[in-house]
Amino acid sequence: MAIMNNKAQDRLSFGSKALDEMIGGGLIRGTASLVSGAPGVGKTTLGLQFLIAGIKEDQPALLVSFEEFPASLIRDALQLGWDLKEMEREGLFKIIFTSPEVLLGSLKAQDSPLSETLYTLSPERMVIDSAAHFQRITNDPVELREIYNTLVNALKREGMTSLLLDEAVDVLALQQGRMASLPFLVDTVMLMRYVEIDSTMQRAIAVMKMRGSTHQKEIRRFQIQKGGLKIGDPFIGREGILSGTTHRIA
Amino acid sequence: MAIMNNKAQDRLSFGSKALDEMIGGGLIRGTASLVSGAPGVGKTTLGLQFLIAGIKEDQPALLVSFEEFPASLIRDALQLGWDLKEMEREGLFKIIFTSPEVLLGSLKAQDSPLSETLYTLSPERMVIDSAAHFQRITNDPVELREIYNTLVNALKREGMTSLLLDEAVDVLALQQGRMASLPFLVDTVMLMRYVEIDSTMQRAIAVMKMRGSTHQKEIRRFQIQKGGLKIGDPFIGREGILSGTTHRIA
Amino acid sequence: MAIMNNKAQDRLSFGSKALDEMIGGGLIRGTASLVSGAPGVGKTTLGLQFLIAGIKEDQPALLVSFEEFPASLIRDALQLGWDLKEMEREGLFKIIFTSPEVLLGSLKAQDSPLSETLYTLSPERMVIDSAAHFQRITNDPVELREIYNTLVNALKREGMTSLLLDEAVDVLALQQGRMASLPFLVDTVMLMRYVEIDSTMQRAIAVMKMRGSTHQKEIRRFQIQKGGLKIGDPFIGREGILSGTTHRIA
Amino acid sequence: MAIMNNKAQDRLSFGSKALDEMIGGGLIRGTASLVSGAPGVGKTTLGLQFLIAGIKEDQPALLVSFEEFPASLIRDALQLGWDLKEMEREGLFKIIFTSPEVLLGSLKAQDSPLSETLYTLSPERMVIDSAAHFQRITNDPVELREIYNTLVNALKREGMTSLLLDEAVDVLALQQGRMASLPFLVDTVMLMRYVEIDSTMQRAIAVMKMRGSTHQKEIRRFQIQKGGLKIGDPFIGREGILSGTTHRIA
Amino acid sequence: MAIMNNKAQDRLSFGSKALDEMIGGGLIRGTASLVSGAPGVGKTTLGLQFLIAGIKEDQPALLVSFEEFPASLIRDALQLGWDLKEMEREGLFKIIFTSPEVLLGSLKAQDSPLSETLYTLSPERMVIDSAAHFQRITNDPVELREIYNTLVNALKREGMTSLLLDEAVDVLALQQGRMASLPFLVDTVMLMRYVEIDSTMQRAIAVMKMRGSTHQKEIRRFQIQKGGLKIGDPFIGREGILSGTTHRIA
Amino acid sequence: MAIMNNKAQDRLSFGSKALDEMIGGGLIRGTASLVSGAPGVGKTTLGLQFLIAGIKEDQPALLVSFEEFPASLIRDALQLGWDLKEMEREGLFKIIFTSPEVLLGSLKAQDSPLSETLYTLSPERMVIDSAAHFQRITNDPVELREIYNTLVNALKREGMTSLLLDEAVDVLALQQGRMASLPFLVDTVMLMRYVEIDSTMQRAIAVMKMRGSTHQKEIRRFQIQKGGLKIGDPFIGREGILSGTTHRIA
User: Which residues contact F110 (CB under 8 A, 6 or more apart)?
Assistant: First the structure.
């Protein structure tokens, strides 16, 4: 596998100047990031954009899908201008369709079913779609936190820079249940949100947390188009965007 | 059964220019869509409108009902100007009154009770009224997600373009329970909502998610009339429509 | 029992032009309607008004009470100008004081305790006060939905046009628990609400759902007086009436 | 015991013109009323005021306390200008300090511990402080509703006009749990509320439900002084008083 | 122990004219009061101020602590200008560090571990820090209410005037769980709240309930300084102070 | 270990004049403080800043981490201008990576695994990252409160001045569950919050509680930069900052 590059602050680009600027120049190599958002808001698109930016720099990229079939991912990617099949042929990209249990096992043991794939491809970038599926393994929030901890540490140990896509977690909420989990374990948290404005459904993206780096504080509009996310302006004159109670300032 | 048409972006019309434009020209053939809304808001009407638009293009159409009797559906459809009995006679339409368990079994095995119906009709369009009834099978959200996954994959494997009607799911909400489910599994999510404005009960429709396609972002008024939904204007000067806390902008 | 009149759209009046207009000319014969409201808002009054309007057209009417004694209902009705005892003597009206279990049994079997009453009276209109009491039979929402389904189907099979009074259900809410129930099963949903305006407790009525018919969308004031509900104006300049967060538009 | 006076609409006064007018001239003889409010808002004061108004008209009055000692009630009443000890000596008033179980038993059987007291005093007016204590008997909401039903029916059978004091129940709320209970069973519901206005704690009273009678719709201020409640003006220019989110209209 | 002074309305001062005026001239001798507030808002300070005002009038005073060590209480009191050690030496003050179970036992039996202390000191004023710890004894709200009832009655039987400090209970809320408890059992309820105003954390105090006495209705600012609470003005131009949703009136 | 300095009000600086002023001149030696905040808001940075300010005054400092690896902490600290490795070499700093159970055991017994480390380093300042992990030991809130009590008392007994980092606890909320815990047990509570303003994510810090000392009441902006937190202005013209419903005053 890829040997971790210890050069401090080695950055991995999203292939988008605006996105990279939001996270202080790119994701820090070897870190794990959480991308939280509602269904359809664009998490998988952001993940693919990250992987493809890597492929263009000859960094092997892996997409782990627990639910959506590779064929479906490939078809949707084509609409965004990305030919994943071609990239697979060129040997720098791979989609693995597996279960959370098998992935966890492969990250722990050397001779597991996925080990060869991981060894052959030696991915530098990885997207897990989605982290929510680890909830299938246990009902116990403490055990789940340990599973996530194992996962994040294994990904880092392998030197991979990873995006963990997840359902819309309310990271800003005050503690309600026991042991909120993923947002504390990862290095970076990116929020993607629907925002209802003027009777239209708009989209917002913000970086909430980034260990060991500065990042932009703006909550910004984005649209999905060929090539991935197009980052736009902040939401001037709006409040409550991230808490889901967006309204116009009088 | 119908062989899946692999031509990318083959679109199926609702027979309404405005509705089709909301979803980028029609539903993509072979995809599964969720229609979420409160009782009486017009989900079944939208479903029938979709099936009947298909029949007019000689596409066999199937309505699966778990609770409302066919006679009742036929009577209500007549009020909307649709003679379902006549369509059944012409062989392009069928209502099946069954249970979620039997439907699931038929989609899994070839020699199940519904298999012949499915084989004979070979439906290209299908409406399931409603997806909420699969909750009767299990209390476990993880098992329920797997059932929905099995259902959606079976529908796609058969090449059917399907609408899954469902009770009003809060797809915009931040994660509260474990493993929100259907909105993540389907390709398209359409929201139908009651909106209280000026002491009247109005109706709103919006497309929230559409895999592999662009779609309109507007939240639009609609009315139910002969022939189905009549799409109207966006709700200018209103906020909080989809979150249920609609109010006028000062 | 009354044979169902299959003439489409045969309407049953509330004996109030304004109320009938709200539901497109009256309740459709053979359908089941839900009336949802807080204690004291006027559900039983609306139910009696419906039955008495039928008696005036020689349609036998039945009131099933699970909790309030017939004597008490008779006394309260007298205040509204209705002499239920006299109507009972004339043979077109009957109050049955029974349990949900016995009612369900009678609707299923021919030789049950209530069968003779039902056979003799052959009611065309029926009010059940209240549907909430079926919750006494089971804690399981799935089983409860099946009980309600059985009830509604039995009432329709007998050709009766029925009002099911119920506690204040939040039919507009987004799905929270599992399998919301009655509002999906009935043909018509009428909401009765308290509204606090200018330091007074006012009352609102609205029709939310009506299968196979158009209906008025207005949320209207009403008062209770001799003869039943007096329908008034919509709540101009008010928002949030049905969600319980009524406030004046600035 | 007192034989129920069947003269329709025989009214029992609170000894306060304003209070009586709020409930259409007084409580209807033989009915049961719920008084709902937060601790300290004045429920017991209202109850005593009702009993004492009866004593002045030679109607025997009974106060049943489940928690507060008679000595304490007597001391507090003295502050309000009422000498309960003197009234007890005159034979028209009695405080019983007992448990919900014993009270229920006494209302069911003739030879129970309280029977002689009830027989000797033969109360026409009765206050139960508080109905919340019946929750000690069972955790099951269905069983609790039946207990309340038994209680209310026994009180009516004995011809007593009763006030059931209770903790602050949200009678306006949309159904959340299973089988809300007391507000449906009683004839009259009176709400007493704290209202925060201009950085002061004010008090509000309103009548929400009154079977077989008209009542005032206004939500009115009140103060507690010698002789009981002094009813004041409505809360002009305020909204949300009863829902607990009081705010000034802009 | 101190024999209860039966002179009606014998008042015990807080040593602060403003505070005493808020409660109609001081706490009524022999009553139990609840002081509810968030951590750090000043409940213990108010309790000490009450005890020390008594000591100055030669009334023995007892502080029962279930969690904070006497040494810590003594150190903090010194900052407020109170030398508790000196007061202990003078024999009019004592801190007992014990458990809820032991305290309850001592109030029930004569020969319990605390009996001698209670007998020797014969306290007229007592503060319990905090009542929340009785929740350690049971999970059952009905049993807890009985424990609180036993406690309050024992304190009154001994003639002590007591303050029960408690976590921030929402005494204004409408009933949600079963059997809210302490606020109903005590004679007086005082609320201490944090209020966020103009980006500062301010403090509010109000008296909500006071059996057998009038009290001020104002919600007032306070600050903590040497000698205890300094009562300030009401919050003019603010709403929602006690419900925690404070905002400025437009 | 360090012998507790009994000189009253001996203060420990954060190395930041503005921060120290917020807490009346620094944390009081020997006290325990809670730092509550969402993931990424800067709790660990504040903790490191506190430890490093001590090292500069030759006070040994200990960081206990339950989840984040020392290597990761060291790397992130470097970005903030702090060379933790160098400090470890100089013998005044140590990171212990352990479990809550082991830490608790070491604080209770003399011959536990951590005892030697604690004995050798004899830390005067200590940060626990994070207190939330003690929830792994038990589901019972009463037992958890006792564990926190044991922890806080042990830290104080050893004379250490400690910061307990914790997830975002709603210390201002009215009591909802049973026995809120840490905020009551510690001497000082500091809140760190995200605040959404003008479509940007800003950060707020406030001191809510400080036993035995005055403290600033302002809620202030802060930024994270080399050297730790840079304290800024209060949020003029904003309300609801700490309750999470921040909005601009009209």
Answer: none
CA-CA distance, D42 to D229, in Å (whole number)?
8
In the numeric block, the tokens 């014993």 are attached to D102
Distance (Å, whole) CA A151 – CA A131? 10
DSSP line for A61-87? EEEEESSS-HHHHHHHHHHTT--HHHH
Q: What is the pLDDT of residues C45-63, one digit of tens each?
A: 999 999 999 999 999 999 9
ipTM over 0.85: yes
Q: Which of B106-120, C22-36, E77-91 has the lowest mean pLDDT?
A: B106-120
For E132, the 3-state DSSP assignment is helix
Q: Which residues contact B96 (CB under 8 A, 6 or more apart)?
A: B62, B63, B64, B65, B103, B114, B117
Mutate to test the interface with B, among A41, A133, A198, A226 (most CBs of B within 10 A): A198
Give me D55's structure tokens: 């004593």
B183: Cα within 13 Å, side-chain hemisphere: 25
Q: Residue A142 has which token pair? A: 């403490």
For the ranges A226-240, B124-138, F177-191, which has the lowest average pLDDT?
Answer: F177-191
Per-state percent for chain C, helix, strand, coil, to nearest 5 = 30, 30, 40
pLDDT band at E136 (very low <50, low <70, confident <90, very high): confident
- With contact defined as beta carbons under 8 Å apart, do A61 and A126 qualify? yes
CB < 8 Å to B243, chain A: 196, 244-245
User: Looking at the DSSP assignment, which residues form a beta bridge with residue E11?
Assistant: E28
Q: Which of residues 157-176 of A touch F (CB under 8 A)?
A: 171-175
Closest CA to C82 of C142, C161, C15: C15
Residue with tokens 């439907």: B103
Task: Determine whether the interchain pair D196/E241 forms a contact, defined as Cβ–Cβ distance below 8 Å.
Answer: yes
- Cα–Cα distance measured from residue D98 to residue D141, given in angstroms and rounded to the nearest whole number: 23
Report yes or no: F224 and F45 within 8 Å, Cβ to Cβ: yes
Please, which residues bridge with residue A147 across strands?
Answer: none
Q: Are E212 and D132 in contact (CB < 8 Å)?
A: no
Q: Does an H or E element contain F81, and which? A: none
E190/E140 Cα distance (integer angstroms):
25
**Is residue F175 within 8 Å of E168, Cβ to Cβ?**
yes
Q: Residue C128 phi/psi, 5° resolution?
A: -110, 120
Q: Which of C159, C176, C182, C163 is nearest to C228 (CA)?
A: C163
From CA B169, how far away is CA B36, in angstroms rounded?
6
pLDDT surpasses 60 at C174: no
Residue C179 has which token pair? 């399998």
